Amino acid sequence: EADIYQTPRYLVIGTGKKITLECSQTMGHDKMYWYQQDPGMELHLIHYSYGVNSTEKGDLSSESTVSRIRTEHFPLTLESARPSHTSQYLCASSEWEPRQPLHFGNGTRLTVT
Amino acid sequence: AQKVTQAQTEISVVEKEDVTLDCVYETRDTTYYLFWYKQPPSGELVFLIRRNSFDEQNEISGRYSWNFQKSTSSFNFTITASQVVDSAVYFCALSDSTQGGSEKLVFGKGMKLTVNP
Question: SS3 letters for chain B?
Answer without folding.
Answer: CCEEECCCCEEEEECCCCEEECCEEECCCCCCEEEEEEECCCCCCEEEEEEECCCCCCEEECCEEEEEEHHHCEEEEEECCCCHHHCEEEEEEEECCCECCECCEEECCCEEEEEEC
